[in-house]
Amino acid sequence: MSDAAEVRQFWQDLGLPGLIDIHTHFMPERVLAKVWAYFDEVGPLTGRTWPIAYREEEQQRIDRLREFGVQAFTSMLYPHKPGMAAWLNSWAADFAARTPDCLHTATFFPEDGAEKYVGAALEQGARVFKAHLQVGAYDPADPLLDGVWGRLADSGVPVVTHCGSGPAPGKHTGPGPIGAVLARHPRLRLVVAHMGMPEYEEFLDLVERYPAARLDTTMAFTGFSEEIAPFPEDELPRLAALRDRILLGTDFPNIPYPYIEALRGLAGLGLGEEWLRAVCYGNAAELFTLDQR
Ligand SMILES: [Zn+2]
């Protein structure tokens, strides 16, 4: 079976209209080229090679998601330095305008003017934000971001945040720094990317403490990640209990294995079809108020 046929079979067997993938990367070409160059050299960081499975032209990558039956996806992008976020946001607004199945995505960096351009993105209809604490190497509790988190909490627009210490720790990764943000903005719809890998337990604690917080499954439970950071089996009952706050994410196209692996990893948890339906479609459809298509 082809890649796409296997993916379609997966959601058809569950009786779903398709998938919603809240963690996919689309970004300006030269930024994506840098990200790919990083993964080409990531071996020393993780001790593993990271061959990108879908290193293709932008249109091909969009077509692939459509062939997979992904009904809605995102264009996660993130700055690694000041002065970059507003430009990324204008690219992402344009991308969403020409890609109707992409949820309009935006980002930010701790810098003067951040609250202003985040406000502008919200007014333009941004549906989801992305923050990357390892690449950005900033403290999420930086006072320059307090207004940003406040705006996001007030608007109810989710922010997918790479705050765990995988595949490599950063100065401000781990549950502590982002926990300080949640303590100050408890209604923030924080989506902990990668299930908080490798600090799974600590991030489950955090998400259990804050009812608006969520987790995305990006790269978790796959053979690739299980080798580096295995999910503790004892914690499976907590995943079952958090069913309505776990969202499918994949990191497409920057993954070192076929897309179906992400879905097989979820199915392999043995948490049942109801759980898979919620995680792969229902929870995101509700969070983003997407029509049943
Ligand atoms: Zn990602």
Our count of domains comes out at 1
- Counted by DSSP, the helix tally is 14
Strand content: 5-15%
The CATH topology is given as TIM Barrel
Q: List SSEs in N-to-C order.
A: HEHHHEHEEHEHHEHEHEHHEHH
CATH class division: Alpha Beta
The structural class is: alpha/beta
Identify the CATH architecture: Alpha-Beta Barrel
- Please tell me the overall pLDDT: 96
User: How far from one another are the termini?
Assistant: 25 Å
Cα gyration radius (Å)? 17 Å
Overall shape: it is: globular
Unreliable segments (pLDDT under 50, ≥5 consecutive)?
none
Roughly what percent helix?
Answer: 40-55%
Q: Strand order of the main beta sheet, please? A: 4-5-6-7-8-9
Instruction: Give a list of the ligands.
Output: zinc ion
Number of strands: 9
Largest sheet: 6 strands, parallel
What is the CATH H-level superfamily?
Answer: Metal-dependent hydrolases
What structural keywords apply?
293 residues; alpha/beta; binds zinc ion; three-stranded parallel β-sheet; six-stranded parallel β-sheet; 14 helices; TIM Barrel
Any overview of this molecule?
- With 293 residues, this protein is α/β, with parallel strands linked by helices.
- It has a single domain (3-287), classed as Metal-dependent hydrolases (TIM Barrel, Alpha-Beta Barrel), CATH 3.20.20.
- 45% of the residues lie in helices and 10% in strands.
- It has helices spanning 3-13, 29-40, 43-46, 58-68, 85-98, 114-123, 133-136, 146-155, 175-184, 200-209, 223-228, 236-241, 260-267, 273-287, and strands spanning 19-20, 70-74, 102-103, 105-107, 128-132, 159-162, 190-192, 214-216, 246-247.
- A six-stranded parallel sheet has the order 4-5-6-7-8-9.
- It is globular.
- 46% of the residues are buried.
- Zinc ion binds at residues 23, 25, 76, 218, 251.
